[in-house]
Amino acid sequence: MSSAHHLSYPRFLWTALRLATDGRPRFYVWMTVLTAIALVGVNAWAHQVSQGMALTAMTDHVSWGLYIANFTFLVGLAAGAVMMVIPAYLYDDHEMHDVVIVGELLAIASIFMCLLFVSVDMGRPDRFWHMLPGIGRFNWPISMLSWDVIVLSGYLLLNLHVAGYLIYMRFLGRTPSKRWYLPFVFLSIVWAVSIHTVTAFLYSGLGGRPFWNSALLAPRFIASAFITGPAFVILLLQVMRRTLKLKIGRGPIDTLARVLRITVLVNLFMLASEMFTIFYGGGSHAASGTYLFFGLHGKSALVPWIWTGIGLNVLAAVLLHLPGSRTRLTLLNTACLFALVGVWIEKGMGLIVPGFIPSTLHEIVEYVPTLTEWKITAGVWAFGLMVLTLGIKLAIPVLKGELSPESVRPPASPPAAAAPAE
Amino acid sequence: MDPKRRTVLKVLGGTLGAAAFARALAPLAAWSKEQSVDEFLQKHYQELSPQELAKVLRRLEDDTERKYGKKVTIQDLRPQQGVEFGYALNLSVCIGCRRCAEACHIENNHDRSTNNSYIRVLEMEQGSFDMERGSATYDHPVPADGKYYMPVQCQQCDNAPCVKVCPVQATWKESDGIVVVDYNWCIGCRYCEAACPYHARRFNWKKPEVPAEEINPDQAYLSNRIRPQGVVEKCTFCLHRTRQGRLPACLEACPTGARVFGNLLDPDSEIRWVLENKRVFVLKEDLGTRPRFFYYFDS
Fold first, then answer.
1. C-alpha neighbours within 13 Å on the C-beta side of residue A177
2. Would you place residue A401 in the very low, low, confident or very high pLDDT band (cuts 50, 70, 90)?
3. How far is Cα of residue A138 from the mean position of the Cα atoms in its chain?
4. How many CB pairs under 8 A join A and B?
5. CB under 8 Å to B24, separation ≥6 — which residues?
6. Residue B29 and residue B294: Cα distance in Å, rounded?
7. How high is the ipTM of this complex?
8. Tens digits of per-residue pLDDT, B227-265?
């Protein structure tokens, strides 16, 4: 019964490869630029592996930096991207259905970046296999990092399945069968919450780091994920509408903006709660917070970062609540951009680094990323954007209704109305 | 564009990209020359058979001779039955001279260029136990007026946060209470470094440099053999000495007799006498880590 699939699936992959690499000149320019940046990152990483992580600014005092900061942000983006599935399915918003695949593709690209950021942070990437269940020694369920590996890989597979299935069905010219993707869509909503909760537990479970050791960390992560996901998708939909001539209505954008209006406020409220708890009591538990927001003993490398982050978050909140943000896209887009950068700072450099300053013996050693770290970071982002671009190119037919067998080549036999082999 | 021409251009672009990728990875060539297949495939320490372990030890000795120009002996020393180690430090007599830190540096074949050591000595203010008012980077004659000194090293916690968080079980607590690292299994994620409340762990940010004539040739797999680049290391109570009936190097170096080491299970040991007769405390007791390293003041 699935004999059709073993023939049509390879043909589908071949067509996908062709489609993903076809484009207008500006597509090639875009991909070439991204490739160049990614290669700069690859080269910097090769130097880092061969000469050691002494090429980074990390030390035994601040042992995680820019890589883990970006990792944390991107787990949020991956989770937030799929949360747009919630209005589409739970509230049966039909216009949202059409763009759900965009969120899933963003999630896929983000998880790829997450895995890369963890990999470039490893001192011994050649021993990656020690983590593989079966041949390695996986410290599950005790280590939170082992949980993170499981939930992130699971999330990647879930989204690859849903997005891949929808695109493949489009290729076959068939209506996707609900039982082959709807349960997975619902599972991915729950799973999205889990990836960011587990990532928060990585930090909040460490008793020796009072700055992270807060029960509010996981809720804060979820709140800010609900900012970055919708904000990124709002911008992405408009880019797609312009460059791909897609008919994307205002509906999805307005729905996402409504979500944003609430989450920016919730996030700021939680930040304020954290600040109150840190500063009202004071004492040595306030040391990291004092260092982050005001500087400590003359050291203040993070002060400009965090105030920029908070400033952008506040500005985004204000802009989103101006009546004009409902009609003027420039206003909305500016707010989205501010919110993205604001959360990137607050959750990245503003959360990971101060966890280490002062150190557990209360020494203050500062951290400013090196050029190597910036190159690798840019490289990973460039790679992620390439994945996202190619994914969207493949999904255009789903969004537009092309890529059916008729537009490619008639299938050898009419597809069986049975379960797909995917 | 003509589809054929487009395909040719695509293949050309792909080839160029692949070539550039290979070129970008070129720095790895030098690094990969230092790695061997045997090392890459080596199993976890606890899973090695006696024969496999013997082969690993010989390989590591050969590697050290080849890379550092020194003949060394790397032993596999297991915990002794009926022994649980404990360490106590008398804050009333410590003068902050850092001889312990220096002895650790030499004994454990630490990287010379970073002057690494498993011990950090805090200069604290009399009348205060606030580490924030202390300093680990003091640079003046000791003991200074109004100060006391508190050396901190791995507390060999019974409930060790570092062991819990390791995603690959590269670090564990042995039956004599010593927390060890399999340097050939560690993936270098540094989660343990984030989890440790005592700043006890160190990462090899680069390949350690030790001149051949300064290398301590008396080494053990789980302790002072020269560590590879990119892995975490820590104090092992000098298990290459203490599991053979000797005292830790930091204790032997102490000029004031501030350090007391011994078997907690031996009721006649000096460490037991200290625990029973002195006013003893542990660092950050509230975290529930249950250290085997104790501090005390003379009454």
1. 10
2. low
3. 25
4. 175
5. A39, A40, A42, A43, A46
6. 48
7. 0.95
8. 999 999 999 999 999 999 999 999 999 999 999 999 999
